Amino acid sequence: MSSGYQKARGGWIIALTLVIAAILGVVPMPAWLEFWRPEWVALVLIYWVIALPHKVGLLTAWTAGFFLDVLEGSLLGLNAMALTLIAYVALSLYQRMRMFTPLQQSTTILILIGVQQLLIFWVLTATGQNTPKNLTFVITSLSSALIWIVLFPLLRYWRRAWQVH
Amino acid sequence: MGLGLFSLVLMFADSRFDYLTRVRYFAALLVTPVHYVAAIPVRVSDYIAGSFKSRNDLIDENQALKEQLLLEQFQLQKLEHLTAENHRLNELLKASSDVEQVVVRAQLTGESPDPFSKRVLINKGSADNVHIGQPVLDAFGLMGQVVEVGYRNSWVLLISDPQHATPVQINRNGIRSIAAGTRDSLHSLTLNNIPNTSDIQVGDLLVTSGLDQHFPVGYPVGIVNSVTMDPGKPFAEVLVTPTAHIDRSRNLLLLFGNKPEARVATPVVSATVPVVSQVTLEIPAGGSIVQPESAGADAEVGEALPQITAPEATGSADTLNAGIPVTGGQQ
Fold this sequence. Notes:
- The complex is a heterodimer of chains A (165) and B (331).
- Chain A is mainly α and 165 residues long.
- Chain A has helices spanning 2-26, 31-34, 40-51, 58-72, 78-99, 102-126, 137-161.
- The longest helix of chain A is centred in the first third of the chain and has 25 residues, at 2-26.
- In chain B, helix 4 runs antiparallel to helix 5 (273-295).
């Protein structure tokens, strides 16, 4: 009884963190800061995949990505695909990721978000949408990797405080 | 794997067809609260900035607005005369019918988090009869068009997006061209296929030509910023700065009443058309352009313009009658 209740509550908390990430992802910011906006939803998703791989997987990633597409008004399926890819890689890496030092984790995040950005970049180019001419999108993966150092302990603290498992 | 393939199919369907409009519409309903929460910081800062204005500032602003209103009303008198005259001339030529334009005020509530995407979110949706393709203006010129409609909000594609092209003509001599958006993060447009010999100068005003049967004729689009004529290339390189404050305007106008059935043009012999377009070009274009330019002296006044004229035109708080004739010069 209580475990079923806890399970349901855990689901809500995961959803809540994703929604907060989505809000942070669209909150208006000054133009120069826009480039530095981390991929909040992707980061939170990676955290949950590493922490609870039996619970948060490809389907969650795809659903989160789908709603992110609607939220950002981007091509339907674009973020869905990118987040599914990230979740897939994170699922295959989670045992190692848990053992990593913060710096190693951060580097992995840099690569993961970089790959995601690249994928989005390809699709945008293929469909003739506006894309950066230079490599400014690398900044996004850099800021995501930096924020991960703070985000990981924070989310872990929340997970333990709310006993999500 | 399956999900990835499904995403690919979804993206293809979304970019090529419009099957997914309903899906988007209902999914957008679910994410509306997220937009609402995300806009709270802006709303709070607006509120704080609004409530801590000094009395002297308000008095000054009030004074400036009154002067502006006087000026606008003076110009409106002239405009009414010109509208009537234009109408009579059109009737003489049996060219086309004037369509009264109704505009509805909308507010910008967000923009795409992608710094390279030139899309903005407005607070009007299908509940306010917004439809896809609807032209969006600010007090200074054309901003873009609605590309996606939700229940209470819609996405607007700006004219500076590389996927957007606007048929324009030079206000001075009527040379037609197409102003396409560019890939840079600044909001500028380029004119494609302008021959090196054509009469185009820096500072020329571009207005919508209406030849797309989509944007009404005579709204300012941009001002020619630079003209590079390289004899080695077949076409001149023309850069245009939009007159609309694309990156600053918060108060926008949605244009109603330019659906195809409303713009009935009586069949005309093609030889008479150039005459018609010349007549319509000079009169309404001048009328509608003088106004925004004088409003350009003060950004705040310009943005408050719809509020001022609203009660006078129709009495409704939200709707006003721009009274700008549209002549469907069909060619």
